[in-house]
Fold this protein.
Amino acid sequence: MPQGCVICLLLAAGWAGAAYVRNREIRQMKKCMKDGNDFAFLSHDIHDLEHSKQVHLPGVTVVMPLKGFGEHNLHNWRTQLTSLYGGPLEFLFIVDSTEDPAYHAVSRLLLDFKDDVDARIVVAGPSTTCSQKVHNQLVGVEKMKKDSKYVLFLDDDVRLHPGSIGALTAEMMKNHEIFIQTGYPLDLPSGSLGSYCIYEYHMVKHIYELWLFIMLCIFICWIWWWQFQPIYQ
């Protein structure tokens, strides 16, 4: 019971903090739009969107390991391909074989965009030493353009905001000591039973991960206390 209360309190604090940050960002966007920046959803400073600055943005390769073809995959892929990132951008859709349903779906999708985006399909082949997803990601890194500075790994169930790639890249450029960034999905159930099942799965998964983290912290604190206790005595 005490552990459950602690987890619920931590979750509530996390949700409250996320709500505060989200509302602060929305207020900042509205203020920028009121001041004449209609592209505040991409950047608070409209001067950052000028061509003279966009041409100096680093190259980014988006690697998407695919498996199968689901209900919302096509729409998710479209949101990824229509990113408004101003720098060099490459998309690599990685499948294990041409027999995967995702291969034919992506092929038709890329025909719609033709030469508008730099995107291609890579057949990685079956994995022999690790999971298929990790194998696809490694092959994607191997096949990416050498002048790309950053790699963005995306799952096929991610619906991407037009400014996400730009925001992630901007944070990496602010602090060159950052090696990796990550994020968590924001599940929005569409009303179907399947979407709610996925929502609940992610919710329970995050709670379980949080519980493991708390237990690990408690264990480390206990080891530290046990190790240094004789010194204090």
Summary: The beta strands are 59-65, 89-95, 118-123, 148-153. The chain has seven helices and four strands. The CA atoms of residues 107 and 121 lie 8 Å apart. Residues 193-232 form the longest helix (40 residues).
